[in-house]
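hey so u asked for the seq, here:
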Amino acid sequence: MFVISLRCEHSCPYCQVSRQSQDKQKFDMTKETADKSIDLVFQSPSKNIKIEFQGGEPLLNFEILKYIVLEAKARKPLEKNLDFVIATNLALINDEILDFCKLHGINISTSLDGPKDLHNKNRPRPGNNSYEKAIEGIKKVKNALGPDAISALMTTTLESMDNIEAIIDEYIKNDFNGIFLRPLSPYGFAIKTKYYDKYSVENWIEFYKKGLKYILDINKSGINFIEFYSTIILKKMLTFQTPGYVDLMSPAGTGIAAVVYNYDGSIYASDEGRMLAENKDFTFKLGDVTQPYKDIFASDKLIDILDQSYSKSAPMCSDCAFEDYCGSDPVYHYATQKDYVGNKAHSDFCKRNMFLFKYLVKKMQESKDTEKLFRFWATQC
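ran it, structure tokens below
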């Protein structure tokens, strides 16, 4: 997947920085940068190309978004497949944008953290109406593009811990067929606001267990509803297919399965690497769009990251019973331990995933109905 960030993370008019005091050109991707990004995207050996537009809020730079879509479709080699996704808070969605998305088969990704009070607390904006904007936008997208054209992700904060059933109910109420119970990651906004340290991996595990139990009960009642993190793991455990989830790849998908072209022309090995750069750590910056493709993607920096992320040779991974199902996330371990490999005994990434592997197997052993459901889930992503 290729992420194209059309605007600076902190240039959105809903953030704490006043947009009126900013030089717009300083924070927007230009056509020149867009052109060079498109050229590099199509030099990838991958047959399947997915471009995801991010920001800040990418719809604030909708003209460049349109330009990239039209140019990418015009330049696409015949042998490659091309898809687009817009990651947006939906506050700016309108008929013009939806008509363009429908014409060009663009899907939408958004955030839904739960019921009104929780979502608004997690995503403050003037008017305290993030939730209302999100729900209104979800309905507009589903009506205009179809029910499968939009997906949502939730962010687990401390306030989420005691609200898992209400969060899941919110997803069902808005006709989503599943939820991704993901923890906070140690990057960007979560670090700056100190949200990341508000709860432990043990807290998240209890949150997940309550959520999975509730989801299993929902399925028993006749409603088909999926937990997507479990589904990714189950696909790796129960099938010969790979879900393509970057965090569970070995070597890591960093820089090869996902690449970020930033609004200013800089290139990062992952979106998490770009978020580290927001805190002035440019460890995962690979170069910029003015450089030749081979200087970026055959660089010693990227090769070193990938080499150290090969779990079969990593200490404690090489002799782990779950190595085939897991991966090595160098950005996570660098962010938490300043080392690409990290000390696995002190890794929340390892604690969380080892719990999941064991717990999912345990649930299948306890119930044939759960095993049947999990085998069904394993075919769904």
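Confidence is low (pLDDT under 50) at residues 11-23. DSSP finds 16 helices and ten strands in the chain.
lmk if thats what u needed
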